[in-house]
Amino acid sequence: MKKQSDHSLIAFVYYLNPVKAVGSRRNNVIISSIFRHFPFKRTTVFSTSNSRYMAKEADPGFPLTARQLITFDHNTIRCMMGPSEKKKKKENRNAPVVEKKSGPGMIGKLLSSFLGVVTIYDGGFLYLLHGVAQIVLYRLRSPGPQVIYTSFSPMADVLLGYITKSLYGKKAYWILDFRDLFIADDRKKIFNGFHEYILKKLIRKSDLLVTVSNGLLANLEKYGPASSLTIKNGFDLNTINYNNKVSGQKFIISYTGSIYPEHQRLDVFLEAVSSLIKKGLLDRNIVALKYVGRSKDYWDGEVNKRGLEDCNESKTTVPLSEAVALQRESNVNLLMSWSYPGVKGILTAKMFDYLCALRPVITIVNGESDPELEGIFRETNCGKVFYTDQTSKLEDYIFELYNKHVNKLDGFNPDIDIIKSYSWTSTIQPLLKKIETEIK
């Protein structure tokens, strides 16, 4: 391939600065890192016109302004109309416990199917149509070699990357990032065989498949990518909480973010706390269960169901800075994950926020063993991983941390050097080196 300065960078990313979303944070870092590292001839980023409606949390350090693709999708409808009165009333009721189901309902399957992707889901038909028109114009104006970056979700961006790669052929190097799985064994889609075919075709067209964990990579490699790489999510080095000593009488256990009852087992954690209080091992006047996120009603309902309402402090969605402050003032941060056949390596962005808070983390995994997740907490010494059948061990660990707090004992020693290796500064390096070897 030609030298780096002859190349241009083109990216299709629905979730991008200033939209407030976990996907935006990852896309912001990857695109800005590539932009700053390579002397590309030109850089063009396309994103959604929905950014004017969606919640914002701008990254002042992001160096680019995206061109907007006209979008009319389910987010457009939701943002323009706002929640209905019926929905508001429903959200104000305590949500019931939701048992794990074999998959979503028919509407959920349609939305997450290929048909849903090209019509109404993230992106939608107008987004794709406008994107194709922009690609054709871009091809005429910039005929030279290209680096293409797209990130799933949504699938609309992947399709635009595929079209761009098809137009440029060997003159383009396509980086296809998967933050999530399009097809998972626990979430079957309509015409699953067709989706398998489409996914294989898209992945084999890419030059480099990137994903967030070795577990997800193992699932995607079966589609035969030309090359693959794991780039975990991370955090900014300057956000590490070096002053990680917690003062105050309260023993605070907090959870920040959404809760997915069909996958996560909040009940296991709450039952452990309730059991310890009933045994007289925890003083309920000292225990504080704090929650911040859009699943407030569900959290409140589950807490109240176990008679722990006097320990509960919950809020709806708050700015990231406030959520981070809560993580740092907590004695324990709660993480809930899942691990099913074919769906392993669920390493959420929240986990890396927890790591840089330098506070103990209790992780509860619903399902099978997840060695990758266990390994991270073992090497960082930043907490422990428990499975849903390990309630006795979970109670022991909660009591151990509680006892250290009330007796003002210092016994938490996370490995800061290892934790630093999970910062964006470190995790992004393999991707930059890979691009360097391919574009000389």
Description:
The chain starts with 7 loop residues before the first strand and ends with a helix. The longest helix has 18 residues, at 124-141. The chain is elongated. It has helices at 22-37, 74-81, 85-92, 106-112, 114-117, 124-141, 155-168, 192-205, 214-220, 266-278, 296-305, 320-329, 349-357, 371-380, 391-406, 416-420, 424-427, 429-438; strands spanning 8-12, 43-48, 67-69, 146-152, 172-178, 208-211, 228-230, 251-256, 287-292, 312-315, 332-339, 361-367, 383-387. Residues 84-103 have low confidence and may be disordered. It has two domains: 4-233 and 424-438, Glycogen Phosphorylase B (Rossmann fold, 3-Layer(aba) Sandwich); 237-420, Glycogen Phosphorylase B (Rossmann fold, 3-Layer(aba) Sandwich), CATH 3.40.50. Helix content is 42%, strand content 16%. A seven-stranded parallel beta sheet has the order 3-2-1-4-5-6-7, sandwiched between helices. It has 440 residues and is of the alpha/beta class. The relative contact order is 0.12.
Distance between the termini: 7 Å
What is the 3D shape? Answer: elongated
Number of domains as seen in the coordinates: 2
CATH 2nd-level architecture of the largest domain = 3-Layer(aba) Sandwich
Strand arrangement, major sheet = 3-2-1-4-5-6-7
Number of strands: 13
> What's the story with the biggest beta sheet?
7 strands, parallel
Helix and strand composition category: alpha/beta
Give the % helix.
40-55%
Strand content: 15-25%
Task: Tell me, rounded to a whole number, the average pLDDT.
Answer: 89
CATH class bucket of the largest domain: Alpha Beta
CATH topology of the largest domain: Rossmann fold
Contiguous low-pLDDT stretches (5 residues minimum) are 84-103
At the fourth level of CATH, the homologous superfamily of the largest domain is Glycogen Phosphorylase B
